[in-house]
Amino acid sequence: KAVVSTQSGHYGRDGSPCQTLRSCDCAPDVCDGAEMYAQQYRDHLLTLCPGGKGLAGFIGEGMGGMTAAMMQSKGFYKKAYEITKSFGGVNIMDEVQTGFGRLGTHYWGFEYHGVRPDIITAAKSIGNGFPLAMAVTTPEIAEAFANSSLHFNTFGGNAVASAAGLATLKAIDDDGLMENSRIVGNRFLEGFNYLREKYDHVGDCRGKGLMMAMEFVESKSTNNPMPTYKMNAILERTKVLLAFFSLGID
To answer: Do residues 9 and 67 make contact, with C-beta atoms less than 8 angstroms apart?
Structure first.
């Protein structure tokens, strides 16, 4: 069976203090791209599953992690989830980077999009440094999985990992870390606005909560990506500055 994943996103506007420079003709709460992307997804499935069935699943992120904080078009996930179901698949949301309040306004990325996935995967932040991952699904899918084949996990569900996860979840709630993500994230994004206005090499900036991205370009007039060798030089310089800051060197 086929599994389809999202590869990129959209420069959608969502009330963030740092908005994309790109313009469009969409209404404030409507994105015309959602229908076009959904149609592309449908056409892709017709190639993969010509009989209209046979799709295993569709997986995506609430906000692009490895795609530089790209946000899917408003309404796309709702349309995509319906298409997935029509082809017999399940909808999976990867919350490894977007989950646990990082977006500032929603605990989960899928909540922002107003959808309900069949399976949620998450890791990393759930253990706050302790190696831990999880998968959450419906009772029906869990039962079908348990009855389908032999499965075992050497470290799954061990007491130490479970305790670390519970302590992390408690700290997120008790310390108000989701609200902190919103406040600190907005401060960062306001700073992105300042840098974008000041420097010609800073291109598009975007983000939500503590998930954000800044593009480096040759100039705003061309909007071409900054050459790799220049980016490497910036990154190396950043490492030096961070070392100075941490050591307290003037």
So the answer is: yes
Distance CA 113, CA 143 (A): 27
Helix axes 159-174, 177-198, angle to 10 degrees: 70
Token couple for 49:
């599953």
Pick the closest to residue 78 from 58, 94, 101, 98 (CA basis).
Answer: 58
The two three-digit tokens of residue 181, written as one number: 């993500």
* Rounded-to-integer distance, Cα 140 and Cα 39, Å: 29
Cα–Cα distance measured from residue 250 to residue 236, given in angstroms and rounded to the nearest whole number:
18
First vs last C-alpha separation in the chain:
59
Nearest CA to 201 among 230, 176, 236? Answer: 230
Residue with tokens 């994309």: 20
What is the pTM assigned to this prediction?
A: 0.84
pLDDT tens, residue by residue, 157-195: 789 999 999 999 999 999 999 999 999 999 999 999 999
Q: What is the DSSP letter of 65?
A: T
Alpha helices for 69-158 (secondary structure H): 76-86, 109-113, 139-148
CB 88 within 8 A of CB 34: no
CA gap 26, 32 in Å, rounded: 6
- The DSSP code for 126 is G
